[in-house]
Amino acid sequence: MKHMIKPALALFAAAAVMTALLGLVHALTLEPIENQLKRTRERIKQEILTGADVFEELVVEPSGSIVRVYEAFNGDGPVGYLLELSPAGYSGQIDLMVGLSSVDGTVAGMRVLKHSETPGLGALAVKESFYRQFDGRKLIPLRVVKGASGEDEIDAITGATVTTQAIAGAVNEAVEWYGGYHPETRPNGGGRD
Questions:
Q1: Residue of 171, 43, 33, 179 whose CA lies nearest to 96
Q2: How many CA atoms lie within 13 A of 102 on its CB side?
Q3: Which of 109, 113, 94 is nearest to 38 (CA)?
Q4: Which of 30, 131, 136, 149 is the 20 to 30 A CA-CA neighbour of 13?
Q5: What phi-psi label fits residue 92: left (phi over 0), alpha (psi between -120 and 50 degrees) or beta?
């Protein structure tokens, strides 16, 4: 029994040192990682709603997969809305942004911020060719199909239908939110309360 105590104490000490080092590395890298994520979000906002230079966060009750909503402005006034959503994908949450243009009434764009989808399958949702399917779409419900050709169809990523459906569902959710919020769609004819 005595011959087991020394190795056990050594193993415990090594584990304690490694845990402390991991905690230190985490503490040192947390702020730079958060700053990088913030810069990435700002860059993506500009990519999606290219004409906007100011994004004001709206106070909205999170619902469904909607996390945050921003109203976007340029020097001439409002140009659209940007929604952050987090739908459930195949392997976990998919954090994404959807831009909706109030200028021409279309989906301005969609970008995935973070995901844990299967490499080579669902991870293909971060490809520019996938993003382009959403650009300029009318604000109508989208459906996922193989070999999309209709104005309401998104081409499913081969082997990643769940991921594609999660993203298309999030875009549909953003469009539905827009229809309920946008002043021109209100029964009383406009203006925010």
A1: 171
A2: 21
A3: 113
A4: 30
A5: left
Which of 43, 42, 65 shows the shortest CA–CA distance to 175?
Answer: 65
Give 154's Cβ-side CA count (13 Å radius). Answer: 32
* Predicted TM-score (pTM) of this structure: 0.75
**Annotated domain spans of the chain:** 1-48, 87-185
Provide CB contacts within 8 A for 158, sequence distance 6+: 121
86 token code pair: 């987090």
The kind and range of the H/E element at 24 are helix 2-48
**pLDDT tens-digit profile of 15-63?**
888 998 888 888 888 888 788 888 888 888 988 998 899 999 998 887 8
Q: 181: closest CA among 65, 70, 53?
A: 70
CB 157 within 8 A of CB 130: yes
pLDDT tens track for 128-144: 888 888 998 898 888 88
Are 124 and 160 in contact, with CB atoms under 8 Å apart?
Answer: yes
DSSP string covering 63-126: -TTEEEEEEEEETTEEEEEEEEE--B-SSSB-EEEEEEETTTTEEEEEEEEE--PPTTTGGGGG
Closest CA to 113 of 67, 172, 160: 67
Name the helix (H) or strand (E) containing 145: strand 143-145
Residues in the chain: 193
